[in-house]
Amino acid sequence: QVQLVESGGGLVQAGGSLRLSCAASKRTFSGYTVGWFRQAPGKEREFVAAISWDGVTYYADSVKGRFTISGDNAKNTVYLQMNSLKPEDTAGYYCAAREGLFIKTAASRYDYWGQGTQVIISS
């Protein structure tokens, strides 16, 4: 069982930056792939980025070049650095984990979810 806790959301102006954190409690991320998803009001949850335990990363086209996902194995934490933020990035951001090293972009392929953290970008 993996318990995930997100933090780092907030309100920033367009063009600004935020760093989200996803910390695993009660166990490590060893052998897991961790992804970030987001969900705006009235929209479906969408894939943002993911990182496998061996460091492979993958991004949605909408955030490529602006967001960076990284992991700190010693701290059992995965980060999502978000730069050049746009109003359309406004959403609840959720961390998720799945066993295995293959990155999946479908939310249904992830077994464990955090409670989410809100990101609001003002224009």
Outline the structure in words:
The chain has 123 residues and is an all-beta fold. The protein is built from no helices and eleven strands. The chain has strands spanning 3-7, 10-13, 18-25, 32-39, 46-51, 57-59, 67-72, 77-82, 91-99, 112-113, 117-122. The strands form two sheets. Strands 2, 4, 5, 6, 9, 10 and 11 form a seven-stranded mixed β-sheet that branches. Strands 1-3-8-7 form a four-stranded antiparallel β-sheet, with no helix packed on it. The radius of gyration is 13 Å and the shape is globular. The termini are far apart. The relative contact order is 0.33. The mean pLDDT is 95.
Q: What percent of residues adopt helix (DSSP H or I)? A: under 10%
β-sheet strand percentage: over 45%
Element-level helix/strand string: EEEEEEEEEEE
Q: Note the gap between the termini.
A: 40 Å
Which structural class matches the secondary elements? mainly beta
Total strand segments: 11
CA radius of gyration is 13 Å
Overall, the morphology is globular
Low-confidence stretches: none
Q: Compute the number of helices.
A: 0
Largest sheet: 7 strands, mixed
**Could you report the average pLDDT, rounded to the nearest whole number?**
95
Helices and strands, with pairings:
Elements: E1 3-7, E2 10-13, E3 18-25, E4 32-39, E5 46-51, E6 57-59, E7 67-72, E8 77-82, E9 91-99, E10 112-113, E11 117-122
Parallel strand pairs: 2-11
Antiparallel strand pairs: 1-3, 3-8, 4-5, 4-9, 5-6, 7-8, 9-10, 9-11
Quick overview of this protein structure:
This protein is mainly β and 123 residues long. It has no helices and 11 strands. Helices cover 0% and strands 51% of the residues.
